[in-house]
Structures are given as C-alpha cells and as structure tokens.
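Case study 2.
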Amino acid sequence: MTGFGKASAETPRKKITVEIRSLNSKQLDINARLPQLLRDKEPEIRNILSQRLERGKIDIIIFSDAFNTESLSVINKAAVKSYYAQMTEIAEELGIELTEQALLSILKLPDSLRAEKQEIEEEEWKVLINLIDEATNMLDQFRIEEGKALEKNIVSSVKKILKSIDSIEEFEPARIDKERKKLVSMLEENIQPDKIDKNRLEQEIIYYIEKLDINEEKVRLRQHGEYFLEMLSSPSSNGKLLGFIAQEIGREINTIGSKANDVSIQKIVVNMKDELEKVKEQLLNIL
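Prediction:
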C-alpha cells in the first residue's frame, strides 16, 4: 500500500530527519538511503521496518548534515615525532636551521594523519529509533485511510459478482429448453422421426445437458465470494490469502463461461470478470 511518513528531532549536535515511503509490491522490498555514519546500523534499521511493514516497496531516507561527515582526520603523533626527529638529525648534519615550515611538511608525509571513523552516540541512536517508529506510525495511518476506501470498492465488486449468480439463474431454464429443442431439431433434420429411439434420445439429452450444468460452479463461486468477504473483514493481514481466493473465484467464473453456451449468460460472465479484475488490482494494496 502507498503511504508516507516523516519525523524530525534535534539533538545537542544535529538535527535528524527520517522519511519513509511505501509503494505497492507483493513482497517486502526495503531500500535504505543512509549516511555513511549509519551504514553499520543498516541491518538493525531493516529489521525494525520488517517487523512493522509486512509488504510493499519501502524507501527510508535518513539525513543530517552532521551525519554526512564520513570521518575525521587525526594527527598520528608517533609518526610525526619520528619524522621530526629524523629531520632534526638531518638538519644538524647539514648545518641548517629547522623552521616551522618543517612541521607543515611533516603533516603532508604518509601516515602523519589517519582517518578516524565516527560512530553514532547511544543517545542519538535512541532518538533515531524513536523517529523511525514515529514515521512508521504516520505511514501506517496513511495506509489505514487508503485501506478504508479500498475495502469499500472491493466489497462492492465482490457483491456484484455474487448478485450476478442470481442473474445467471434467471436464464438457465430457457437455456436448458433451448438446448433440448436444438438437439431434437438436429436429429429430425438428419434422421426420419420414426427411426429415432425416444429412450436413447432422452438419455443423450440428459447426458449432454449434464455436461452443461453449472450448478456446482455457482455453489463454489458463492462460497468463495462469501469466504472472501469474511477474510476481508478479518483484523489480521490476509492480503495473500485474499489473492488465492480471488484466483479460485476467477476459476469458477471461467468455467461457467465455458459451459454456459448462452449469450445472455456470457454477457454476465464478462461483467463478473471485469469486477474481478478490479478486485485483483486493488489486492496489490492489501497487506
């Protein structure tokens, strides 16, 4: 589900800002844009997000000017003293005076300066965790509001599918009678009426009509639809389960369409497929 959350706080040394965005995705995919200072904390940050955000393409951005200082240069006293002692010895041998410029030159020599990696202080880390939690709560609120609108649309589509089952039943009696007359007419056109075995004809008609029977499909379709609505109203995260149920609903609708052999029923089936596609698109937003 889509959403956005942002939180900021100021510490004695810096201002920290956390932004979290989410887009639709079947899986949890976290993309973290962190300052170098926080690279060591990335696994912990990902773990915090994975516990709160079950699905979606998640982007988390943390920034602060002070955080962006990757490292500090520290004078290597031992190396500088060693260089200075050697230069003093050389100056004495050459009979020249060692000036202050020598010290500046020494600082440019290898190993005179070393990079010291910064680490986030414990108090700042606690502040950052709270900010991530605050931004996640805001993102969740976005998702909840979006979910209410989605639920209304999904329920409407599923109920239309269930209502269509009743519409199909209105055309079934005429459909069966039409198929019976069609078979009898074909036989009479090709075989003399007095040579038709009435009992065998009835058996064949019954067999053919049974192959066109869609009662089982209608029962399963109604059960799947009612189960879908039941799971949709459940407080737990059922996005993947709803996706599986939607597949079963689609399977029954397709079977009805292939067995219907009736223009009016086919039109209803097309409308049912249209409503189901709307449901499937919106299921990508359901956790």
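The CA atoms of residues 91 and 97 lie 6 Å apart.
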